């Protein structure tokens, strides 16, 4: 009777089980692991800038602090702009209440929801659809987020600082830990390739998202849509979520244009068609061509990764889903036993 070697099958089965267990652990330990993951990815992004500053004879730790300070300043500017925009939305709400109420009355009539013509929009919403519970839960969540937000930002900044200090000595540490030349060269290659590819992906995504947000903001401003900064920022942030983000941004911006401009249909059409064109050209043509040829990631697995990490880490997981997939592919591509996994993750390249 012929003896069969089941070792490879057992190895892949164990890898699959370990992967499932790891995902379960990551979900349970999200509060602890997510800031570490974010800090590592930010360190990958900051590394080329820090290295460039260091080439001008600026000490490494000072270069790291400069990059972190500039990033913090930019985040604070964006936050102030958004706070101002939110205040404008709140102050402008009375102008839109009548329109919102008429829209809600149509929805209530269609779906047989309770509606009192003598009450305000909030009063009608408060008494239907379980909005009371939703608002209370949202208020508690927002309060918890604001309280813990400063701690998280401080923790991530601290982790970035110390991790980037470690990155400078990474090569020497790898050589010390793995004296065999062939092995340490391969580990160094995987590390450098991971940093390079993740940095390239996030840079591409950032520039495409920034361009998308800028163009959407300009379109909204040109047609007179209120709060163009909000819609541009929304397009910028949601574009980091593959496939679904730009669609959500399109629906929200177009819906608001309907509320503001109806019955002036031509402005609604301009907003809808322009945003659709921007998303199609940048998101469906330019970005995949620019990004896909470099990363070689299967579009189907991008969608799976988006769903999976969204389930594990929520909105942050959706944004981090593709960089994590890139890291997994690079690691699998450079480990002999995991090359089939890398082949499954990758997209088929055209033969030259």
Counted by DSSP, the helix tally is 12
Largest sheet composition: none
Beta content comes to under 5%
Query: Could you give the count of β-strands?
Result: 0
Total domains: 2
What is the CA-CA span between the terminal residues?
A: 47 Å
Shape: globular
Q: What Rg is obtained from the alpha carbons, in whole angstroms?
A: 25 Å
Report low-confidence residues grouped into runs of 5 or more. Answer: none
Question: Pairing-aware structural class of the strands and helices?
Answer: mainly alpha
- How much helical structure, as a percent, in the residues? over 70%
Q: On the 0-100 scale, what is the average pLDDT?
A: 77
Order of helices and strands: HHHHHHHHHHHH
Report on this model:
With 352 residues, the chain is mainly α. The protein has two domains: 30-168, no CATH class; 171-347, no CATH class. The protein has twelve helices and no strands. The chain has helices at residues 7-28, 30-55, 60-111, 121-126, 131-168, 170-177, 181-223, 228-238, 245-261, 265-295, 299-333, 339-345. Helix 7 (181-223) packs antiparallel against helix 11, helix 8 runs antiparallel to helix 9 (245-261) and helix 11 packs antiparallel against helix 12. The mean pLDDT is 77.
Q: How would you concisely characterize the structure shown here?
A:
With 352 residues, the protein is mostly helical.
Topology (SSEs and partners):
Layout: H1 7-28, H2 30-55, H3 60-111, H4 121-126, H5 131-168, H6 170-177, H7 181-223, H8 228-238, H9 245-261, H10 265-295, H11 299-333, H12 339-345
Helix pairs in contact: 1-2, 2-3, 2-5, 2-7, 2-11, 3-5, 6-7, 7-8, 7-10, 7-11, 8-9, 9-10, 11-12
């Amino acid at each position: 009777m012929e003896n069969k070697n089941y070792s490879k099958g057992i190895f892949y089965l164990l890898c699959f089980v370990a992967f499932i267990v790891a995902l379960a652990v990551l979900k349970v330990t999200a509060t602890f692991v997510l800031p570490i993951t974010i800090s590592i990815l930010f360190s990958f992004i900051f590394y080329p800038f820090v290295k460039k500053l260091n080439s001008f004879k600026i000490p490494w730790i000072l270069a790291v602090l400069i990059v972190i300070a500039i990033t913090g300043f930019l985040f604070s500017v964006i936050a102030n702009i958004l706070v101002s925009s939110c205040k404008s939305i709140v102050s402008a709400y009375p102008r839109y209440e009548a329109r919102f109420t008429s829209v809600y009355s149509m929805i209530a009539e269609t779906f047989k929801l309770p509606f009192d013509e003598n009450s305000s929009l909030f009063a009608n919403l408060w008494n239907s659809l379980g909005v009371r519970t939703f608002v209370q839960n949202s208020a508690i969540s927002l309060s918890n987020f604001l309280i813990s937000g400063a701690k998280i930002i401080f923790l991530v900044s601290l982790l970035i600082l110390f991790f980037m200090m470690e990155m400078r000595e990474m090569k020497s540490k790898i050589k010390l830990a793995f004296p065999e030349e062939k092995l340490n060269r391969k580990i160094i290659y995987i590390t450098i390739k991971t940093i390079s590819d993740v940095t390239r992906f996030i840079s591409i995504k950032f520039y495409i998202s920034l361009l998308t947000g800028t163009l959407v903001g300009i379109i909204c401003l040109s047609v007179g849509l209120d709060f163009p900064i909000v819609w541009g920022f929304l397009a910028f942030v949601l574009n980091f979520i593959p496939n679904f983000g730009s669609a959500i941004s399109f629906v929200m911006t177009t819906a608001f244009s309907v509320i503001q401009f109806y019955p002036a249909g031509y402005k609604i059409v301009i907003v809808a068609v322009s945003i659709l064109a921007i998303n199609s050209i940048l998101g469906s043509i330019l970005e995949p061509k620019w990004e896909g040829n470099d990363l070689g990631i299967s579009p189907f697995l991008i969608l799976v990764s988006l769903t999976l990490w969204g389930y594990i880490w929520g909105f942050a997981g959706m944004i981090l889903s593709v960089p994590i997939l890139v890291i997994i592919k690079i690691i699998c591509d450079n480990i002999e036993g995991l090359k089939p996994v890398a082949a499954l993750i990758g997209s088929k390249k055209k033969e030259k």
